[in-house]
Amino acid sequence: MLEKMERVIMLKDLYGPLLTDKQAQVLSWYYEQDLSLTEIAELMDISKQAVHDLLRRSEKTLREYENRLGWLGRFEAMRRELEGVCALLNGPCDDAIRHQAVKTLRTLLESM
Predict the structure, then answer these.
(1) pTM of this prediction?
(2) Alpha helices in the chain (DSSP H)
């Protein structure tokens, strides 16, 4: 469940502007603020089933955007590549160069 939650949050971060306000809000409340379906239903003045349906449709929309655009896949691939570069540079080489390269790459990774 944690892996799914992280993935939905990442997809929402990438594609959130493409969602309706209602879709973005329900995803935020459920996945980021950990509100229950009942709590969200009360906030939105709709049924618990309607919240459930809205969540599922919103998740499906995010998956469809990712299938078409692939931004998260590219992000994850770039991150893996950069981690590999860090691992390579962390091996034997001039200490000053290695230190600066690792520091630069780590800063880049943290800013992503």
Answers:
(1) 0.75
(2) 2-15, 21-27, 37-44, 48-69, 71-89, 95-111
